[in-house]
Design goal:
single chain, alpha/beta, GIY-YIG endonuclease, Rossmann fold, six-stranded parallel beta sheet
């Protein structure tokens, strides 16, 4: 325990770990004299609550209270479970995202969630013990550590030998020799425990013979300028915009080196799917045992071990997904958010925070620097730079001399008109033939996202759109109707194309399995590794798919969005986008932006080696701004139009949005409460604010629950979360109804 946090205070302010807005403020409890030296900010305690006991967290200490006859803390359950700023930051998150305070406090707890307590009695004395997360079995632990620490092929070679060794017990000298890639904390731990003996250390080389070294490289002029900009931006947010392959990771590494040199800690956030051995390996190769990894593919026990390394100060660099932002670092100096535009940085359950915005708040009024890196920064980041609130740094060119790959856009409507009924255009077919002939590799991307189907005319590319909202209409099989999920407009499904009267209207979206079957039928000699939710659902599935692709002398990697980013294979000469249109037509005001980001990211996988790269994009809408922006390598083609459109209709980042979803199994009760809530939100509405709805949600029924939603719009910078939070506190939901507020939503599902 930090000695400076001990106190002789007689009063503790405790946040009760109960998920209700009725207990949304700290309670005062008396500190018994025997516990005075054990109580500190952040420690878990057992307290009486009504007629029962509850776990709470100490968030304040003092000697005065507004209340008399305070109940005493019954037991201190352990050391402090969070960092010093946990309560202040949790309080802000609860207000900003309209969530219960206890939900926000949970973000700072160690892996395993809310602590559990057990009652023990010995010789008439009752004690309460905190239950820690259990550590996983040895086999599971070794596999996961290797998956997270090494190159895929190196990890695969090691797993079987080490698991067998652990089954037999400790291995004595000479019984097990291991050759491996970059030495990481996981393998060192196994060596220290006597499970293995390392007899040689060398860098691993891939199939191509390219060394997977990660020593510091000479920086380009643009990289050097970016590093200096970051160093000079304490307390600020730096938006690092760099084309794919421009060396953003090296800039991150240099910034971390400076932070560590100043005796401070760093947090690096990456999208969950990018937590591959390739990504983590670069940080471990540079910083070794100072790196801790926190992500959901580790077991609870393994995450707890990594979390403990950070809390103890043994790890100074935390690499992980969204929740790693709340790791118990001791002296935070730098936060890096890679691929900041990714929707995965938005929490899907309460509190529905966005890691980018929480990081910006942490930097505000502090000396902590935040770096937001992306080849395709979000509209929110661009707007903040345009307005002078955030700092810009740019990497406009690749670090190699090969340049960006050629982009060819294929009009699939024209292909259809010429009699080609295949999912592969003639250009795509020729490109796959070339991969097979040259014995190189290719990545095929199926832009399949979202729940909804839309109609598309295969003759002219027409997609039915809402007359009010400039979004595509969603096809609903029940009732055979098209519906807008923004304003509620609905219309019958046409039997022929309203534009050209063609009967070739289809519900859009072929799956990866069908694409794989087509490839096997047309190119039976070409191996295919499929990478989607089905093939990577198991533990280590993502890593195994990448390892299988890397092991191929020649072949294709076929996948969904998980192949669009974070992959660096010099053998890849082709990137093919089977269908670029799906995200264009989702009922979402961010549809065009997301389409551009995905296409630009996946395009960057090609041409990273000696051979030139080719990107083939198949689309029925070649004139869409997102397609033209990727083809011309000019983001402003899209963003100029997006700025005008969003500012005129009042969407983010030019308005703040709240999406409040009301759900329950009784349709009448859900409808009734949505009306009550809509009226309450409209009362005393500030000038410039607007309430839309209630109306059916985009997903009107999920898991037998009916869903309605209310959309609230407010000016930029408005205190939207506190307003919603106050209204929800005044209008509690009836039994059987759940209300989920989403401030600054990423979608309207």
């Amino acid at each position: 325990m930090n000695e400076s946090m001990r106190t002789e205070a007689s009063i503790a302010r405790v946040v009760i770990d109960v998920r209700t807005r009725a207990l949304d403020e700290p309670f005062d409890y008396a500190i018994p004299a025997p516990l005075a030296h054990q109580v500190s900010i952040g420690c878990p305690v057992l307290v009486p609550l009504g007629g029962r006991r509850a776990v709470g967290f100490v968030v304040g200490l003092g000697n005065e209270s507004r209340y008399d006859n305070l109940k005493p803390i019954e037991s201190v359950l352990g050391e402090s479970l969070s960092r010093a700023d946990a309560y202040e930051l949790a309080r802000w998150i609860a207000d900003e995202y309209a969530s219960p305070l206890a939900e926000a406090m949970r973000l700072f707890l160690p892996p395993g969630g809310t602590p559990k307590v057990v009652r023990r009695e010995s010789d008439g004395v009752v004690t309460w013990d905190l239950v820690r997360p259990s550590v996983s079995a040895a086999e599971d632990r070794v596999v996961t550590l290797l998956d997270s620490a090494f190159e895929p092929r190196a990890g695969a070679r090691l797993q079987r030998s080490i698991i067998d060794a652990l089954r037999m017990g400790p291995v004595t000298s000479g019984e097990l020799a291991v050759e491996f890639g970059a030495v990481a904390a996981a393998l060192k731990t196994l060596e220290q425990r006597g499970a293995i003996e390392v007899t040689a250390r060398r860098r691993w080389r891939g199939e191509s013979g390219r060394a997977r070294e990660d020593t510091a490289h000479t920086l380009t002029k643009a990289q050097s300028a970016a590093v200096e900009t970051i160093a000079a931006s304490a307390g600020a947010v730096v938006v690092l915009e760099g084309v794919t392959g421009s060396g953003k990771t090296e800039v991150y590494l240099r910034a971390i080196e400076r932070t560590l040199g100043a005796g401070r800690d760093a947090i690096v956030l990456v999208p969950e799917i990018s937590l591959t051995p390739q990504t983590v390996g670069r940080f471990r190769a540079r910083f070794g045992n100072l790196v801790a990894v926190l992500h959901s593919r580790l077991s609870v026990g393994e995450r707890f071990d990594q979390w403990s390394l950070v809390a103890q100060g043994d790890a100074k660099v935390v690499v992980g997904a969204r929740s790693a932002l709340f790791a118990p670092v001791r002296d935070l100096g730098l936060i890096i958010i890679d691929e900041e535009h990714e929707a995965s940085y938005k929490q899907g359950s309460a509190p529905r925070y966005h890691a980018r915005d929480v990081a910006a708040h942490i930097a505000h009024d502090s000396d902590i620097t935040v770096v937001l890196g992306s080849a395709t920064p979000s509209m929110e980041a661009r707007a903040a730079v345009d307005e002078g609130r955030w700092v810009s740094a740019r990497l406009p060119e690749r670090v190699t001399a090969h340049g960006l790959p050629e982009v060819r856009v294929v009009d699939m409507g024209a292909e259809f008109g010429d009699g080609n009924r295949s999912m592969f255009s003639s250009v795509m077919s020729d490109a796959i033939d070339a991969v097979s002939d040259r014995k190189s590799k290719g990545v095929l991307f199926l832009n399949r996202r979202g729940f909804a189907s839309f109609l598309l005319c295969r003759e002219c590319g027409f997609v039915p759109r809402c007359q009010n909202c400039s979004v595509s209409l969603t096809y609903h099989e029940r009732g055979d109707r098209l519906t807008c999920h923004h304003c509620g407009h609905t219309e019958p499904t046409p039997v022929s194309c309203p534009r050209c009267q063609s009967p070739y209207l289809r519900r859009f979206g072929a799956g990866t399995q069908r694409v794989e079957d087509e490839i096997h039928a047309r190119w039976p000699e070409l191996p295919v590794v499929r990478m989607d939710a089905d093939t990577t659902s198991g533990k280590g599935g993502h890593e195994r798919a990448l390892a299988a692709f890397e092991d191929l002398a020649s072949g294709l990697l076929l996948g969904t969005q998980m192949v669009a980013k974070g992959l660096d294979y010099p053998e890849v000469t082709l990137v093919g986008v089977i269908n670029a249109d799906t995200t264009m037509h989702l009922p979402d005001f961010r549809a065009a932006e997301r389409t551009y980001q995905l296409l630009e990211q996946v395009s960057g996988r090609a041409g990273r080696g000696e051979d030139p790269g080719l990107v083939v994009i198949q689309t029925y809408w070649p004139d869409h701004p997102a397609i033209r922006a990727v083809a011309a390598r000019d983001a402003e083609i899209l963003y100029t139009e997006e700025r005008e459109l969003r500012s005129s209709v009042g969407w983010a980042p030019y308005r703040r949005i709240a999406n409040i979803v009301i759900s329950g199994e009784n349709s009448a009760t859900v409808t009734s409460h949505s009306v009550v809530l809509g009226e309450a939100l409209s009362e005393a509405l500030p000038d410039g604010w607007e309430v839309l709805g209630p109306s059916d949600a985009a997903l009107a029924r999920v898991k037998r629950a009916y869903r309605r939603h209310i959309v609230l719009k407010a000016p930029p910078g408005a205190a939207l979360g506190p307003y919603v939070r106050a209204v929800l506190a005044r209008c509690p939901a009836p039994p059987g109804v759940a209300v989920a507020p989403d401030i600054d939503p990423m979608d309207f599902l």
